């Protein structure tokens, strides 16, 4: 990374973030906004430090439920996407059902999950899974469906089976779509886990915020939001890194290879 | 032999019979839409005939032929594979190479082939790092790596500029003379056909029929200079007249 690139990729987001907090702090102090409406960043960071033990504890729960739901969604979404992309009849049959399923707000499903599995981590994992597998399925199926027939012809001329064509052309061709959808899915999984925690859970950032809100501990609520934002960025960045590692060929315009 | 779908189906090719000797280089020329490409896709088994039948060496063709190597107008290289790995692709599909395929085992063979068409130092490049001519050279290597009995080229140089095209004519000429591979070239470039082929078949359109079989008696090895001789021009002119007439 040269100096110019460092400036753009690291320094500029850092400066912007610090600036955002500064403006927030100044507005709170200048307008004398009460702590119970909008706490200033200094109050939020103070709360973050003071309650660091429960916050870390609960963050850990949110993180692993998110990741567990996301992993299930990845495996399930990839398999279903390949299945849907493999066969036109399967595509026609499953697609409308998928859209209908995806249209149901997942908050509405959480009470059912709690009914089935009780209060705890399982509803959070399942909500994260349910909310995040759809974009993976759609993207993988799209990647397969838009594979250039000319590329398939190359293999068909060699007498390749449908499975060969899928392995050598279809799947590599749809990998950029797959990884692109993972970035969407990880954020959605996170939303799903937190939503489930705010509806009913023993632990997790969502539950912590719910309790803090009930006790008018607004700085803790905001500390929770801050933790969620940071976790979201970290998860997104991790997925983006994996994407760049595996599908560099699809981003040739942006890298100096 | 009819070809196409539903109402769009046309009788593309009528009673075409080609005699190809082992090691011969034949070219099929004709106006666009005369069914040259259809003929090739039918022979290779890539498309099934809608009506009629097709036999290669006396046997009816039902699916892709095992011993065919094909290259198309577009190189159709897989963008996620390097030139070398693109060339190795057929070996991962076609028997007997497929059984126990190891990249290391065949790497040398692929590299040699790429070197023989002048791609020194480009074997590990990705398709987008290669020029159009280099991509097409790689594509031809890919069609040859599994040592097919016949190499079928469907307007392989159609998308290239005139100079690159002539360069690739020479590359193909050398490749063919070294390896003694049987080649069927489909093209609408008469100079290309006359320069490269032993025998040129002229097709007419709708329905596609062979209207002329012309043996090219220009001695080999042929140099690009040959294309400026009177004899060469005469043959091209003769073929051109045939296409105009039908």
What does this entry show, briefly?
Chain A has 257 residues and is an all-alpha fold. Helix content of chain A is 81%, strand content 0%.
Can you describe what's shown?
The complex is a heterodimer of chains A (257) and B (246). In chain A, 81% of the residues lie in helices and 0% in strands. Chain A is mostly helical and 257 residues long. Chain A folds into two domains: 32 residues; 210 residues, MetI-like (MetI-like fold, Orthogonal Bundle). Chain A is flat. The mean pLDDT of chain A is 88. Helices cover 36% and strands 17% of the residues of chain B. Chain B is built from seven helices and ten strands. In chain B, strands 6-7-8-3-9-10 form a six-stranded mixed sheet, with helices on both faces. In chain B, strands 1-2 form a two-stranded antiparallel ribbon. By secondary structure, chain B is α/β, with parallel strands linked by helices. In chain B, a hairpin with a 6-residue loop joins β1 and β2. In chain B, α2 packs across α3, α4 packs parallel to α5 and α6 packs across α7. Classes of the chains: A mainly alpha (257), B alpha/beta (246).
Sequence-ordered SSE layout with sheet pairings:
The complex is a heterodimer of chains A (257) and B (246).
Chain A: H1 3-31, H2 41-50, H3 52-86, H4 88-103, H5 110-117, H6 121-145, H7 149-156, H8 162-199, H9 205-214, H10 218-246
Chain B: E1 2-3, E2 10-11, E3 25-29, H1 36-44, E4 55-56, E5 59-60, E6 68-71, H2 83-93, H3 103-116, H4 132-144, E7 150-154, H5 162-179, E8 182-187, H6 190-196, E9 199-204, E10 209-215, H7 230-245
Parallel strand pairs in B: 3-8, 3-9, 6-7, 7-8
Antiparallel strand pairs in B: 1-2, 4-5, 9-10
């Amino acid at each position: 990374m040269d100096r110019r690139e460092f400036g753009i990729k690291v320094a500029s987001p850092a400066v912007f973030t610090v600036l955002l907090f500064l403006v927030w702090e100044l507005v709170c102090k200048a307008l004398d906004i009460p702590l119970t409406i909008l706490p200033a960043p200094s109050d939020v960071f103070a709360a973050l430090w003071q309650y660091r033990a429960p916050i870390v504890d609960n963050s850990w729960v949110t993180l692993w439920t998110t990741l567990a739901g996301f992993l299930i969604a990845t495996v399930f979404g990839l398999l279903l996407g390949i299945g849907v992309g493999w066969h036109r009849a399967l595509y026609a049959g499953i697609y409308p059902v998928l859209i209908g399923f995806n249209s149901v707000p997942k908050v509405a499903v959480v009470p059912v999950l709690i009914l089935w599995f009780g209060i705890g981590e399982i509803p959070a994992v399942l909500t994260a899974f349910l909310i995040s597998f759809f974009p993976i399925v759609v993207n993988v199926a799209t990647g397969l469906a838009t594979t250039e027939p000319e590329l398939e012809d190359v293999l068909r001329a060699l007498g390749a089976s449908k499975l060969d064509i899928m392995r050598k052309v279809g799947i590599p061709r749809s990998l950029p779509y797959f990884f692109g959808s993972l970035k969407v899915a990880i954020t959605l999984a996170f939303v799903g886990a937190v939503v489930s925690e705010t509806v009913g859970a023993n632990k997790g950032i969502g539950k912590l915020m719910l309790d803090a809100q009930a006790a008018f501990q607004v700085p803790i609520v905001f500390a929770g939001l801050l933790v969620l934002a940071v976790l979201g960025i970290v998860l997104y960045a991790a997925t983006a890194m994996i994407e760049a590692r595996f599908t560099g060929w699809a981003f040739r315009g942006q890298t100096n290879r | 032999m009819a070809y196409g779908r539903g109402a769009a189906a046309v009788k593309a090719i009528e009673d075409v019979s080609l005699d190809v000797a082992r090691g011969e280089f034949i070219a099929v020329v004709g106006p666009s839409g005369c069914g040259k490409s259809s003929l090739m896709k039918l022979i290779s088994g890539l498309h099934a005939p809608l009506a009629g039948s097709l036999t290669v060496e006396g046997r009816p063709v039902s699916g892709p032929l095992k011993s065919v190597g094909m290259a198309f107008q577009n190189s159709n290289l897989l963008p996620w594979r390097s030139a070398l790995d693109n060339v190795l692709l057929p070996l991962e599909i076609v028997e007997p190479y497929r059984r126990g395929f190891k990249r290391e085992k065949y790497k040398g063979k692929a590299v040699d082939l790429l070197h023989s068409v002048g791609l020194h130092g480009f074997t590990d490049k990705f398709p987008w790092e290669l020029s159009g001519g280099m991509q097409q050279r790689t594509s031809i290597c890919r069609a040859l790596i599994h040592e097919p009995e016949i190499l079928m080229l469907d307007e392989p140089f159609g998308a290239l500029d005139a100079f690159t095209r002539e360069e690739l004519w020479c590359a193909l000429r050398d490749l063919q003379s070294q390896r003694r591979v049987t080649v069927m070239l489909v093209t609408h470039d008469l100079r290309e056909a006359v320069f490269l082929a032993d025998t040129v078949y002229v097709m007419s359109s709708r329905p596609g029929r062979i209207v002329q079989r012309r043996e090219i008696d220009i001695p080999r090895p042929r140099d690009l200079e040959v294309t400026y001789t009177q004899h060469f021009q005469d043959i091209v002119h003769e073929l051109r007249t045939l296409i105009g007439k039908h």
